Request: fold
Amino acid sequence: MIGLDTNVLVRYLTLDDPEQAERAERVIDDAVRTGEPLFVSAIVVCELVWVLERGYRFTRGEVEVVLDALLRTAQLHFRDKDLLWAALADYRASPGDFADYVLGRDGAAEGCTATVTFDRALSKSPLFEVLPAAE
Reply:
């Protein structure tokens, strides 16, 4: 098994640099052909969302489609796919950032009653306790 860095997935998905996109496609196609799984860490998924939203101006809906497709790709291996699916569901339903929902779900999996934050966009999520900005 080999791991994929964020920039390889970005090139593969956006085709914005033809030379790098071709190399990324070759690595992924070779793995598919040989049946070798490709590891994608939760950090890479979080970075990917950030890059697609901020750098490429993907809409939330477009990012949701990409994440759904990645998580359904049999060739890709994720350490905790269920956590990523749950974070995607949170991201679809609420205004917070995808990485925040990964953090919240990760904390809950470790037994945290909540993850404290100052991010008001997470106020409706039971995974978080929003701290007041000033006392």
Observations:
- DSSP finds six helices and five strands in the chain.
